[in-house]
Amino acid sequence: MVMLPYVICHIVSSVDGKIDGDWFGMEEIRPALAESNRIRENYQCSAVLYGSVTMAETYAEGFVKNLPHANITFSREDYIAHSEVDSYFVAIDPQGSIAYADKYIEKRGRPKVHVVEVLLESVSDDYLAYLRDLDISYIFAGKESLDAVLCLEKLYCLFEIKKLMICGGGIVDYTFLQAGLIDELSLVIVPLTDGATDVATVFDRSPFVPITQAIPFKLLEVKMLPGDGVWLRYQPKNTI
């Protein structure tokens, strides 16, 4: 029997489904954002999973450049570093692109977390050497494409992550949704839109993933939030 974490996708979006933009700094949405943070904490997840862009631009140190050549060929085996904490930021980073300052991240008033990189076996030895030098944990979840089930199975078995939160970007959200691996969608809608058409939405299909039928949801709860926001809880109907 495959053991997987319980997965919550928790996202803040504009009324037209956008999850990025300068509007995140606007006064009008602060009450709803504060409530979103409270909801997020109440889930008590031991790990939060992000796509490479969200991790690099929000929590890590951007993207790596000109890595030194590794004089060793690494076996494609998972590497579990010692950690002082049992909470994690998991980065879906197939080809190894995210830059880090340390094996831990402690930002925005949140507790210190240990980084776990999720890689493909086609990642370069240069990047594996980079992670080893920083003593950052990494796991492999596929050879040429992401095996989302294997990823979650390893997070459960190797790090004892029983409850996992996915927080974007849109492609990562949809990748796990399409695979039937999201147990609950927690969607906070803030009362604005900027009409942008070139930013990520709550769910964005990867161009490398075959098109499937639309995924329906069952509504579990609706709650009005301070500042005219709304919290919606859904259960995807394709959960495995």
Q: Please report the number of helical segments.
A: 5
Helix content: 10-25%
Rg calculated over all Cα atoms: 18 Å
The largest β sheet comes out as: 10 strands, mixed
User: What is the terminal-to-terminal distance?
Assistant: 13 Å
Give the beta-strand count: 10
Question: Tell me, what's the shape?
Answer: globular
* N to C succession of SSEs: EHEHEEEHEHEHEEE
Q: How does the helix and strand content classify structurally? A: alpha/beta
Q: Can you give the mean pLDDT?
A: 95
The fraction of residues in strands falls at 15-25%
Low-confidence stretches: none
Describe the structure.
The chain is built from 5 helices and 10 strands, in the order βαβαβββαβαβαβββ. By secondary structure, it is α/β, with parallel strands linked by helices. The longest helix is centred in the first third of the chain and has 13 residues, at about 30-40. It is globular, with a radius of gyration of 18 Å. The chain starts with 5 loop residues before the first strand and ends with a strand.
Essential attributes:
240 residues; alpha/beta; globular
Topology record:
Layout: E1 6-13, H1 30-42, E2 47-51, H2 52-59, E3 88-92, E4 104-105, E5 113-119, H3 125-134, E6 137-140, H4 148-159, E7 163-166, H5 170-178, E8 184-189, E9 217-225, E10 229-236
Parallel strand pairs: 1-7, 1-8, 2-3, 2-7, 3-5, 5-6
Antiparallel strand pairs: 4-5, 8-10, 9-10
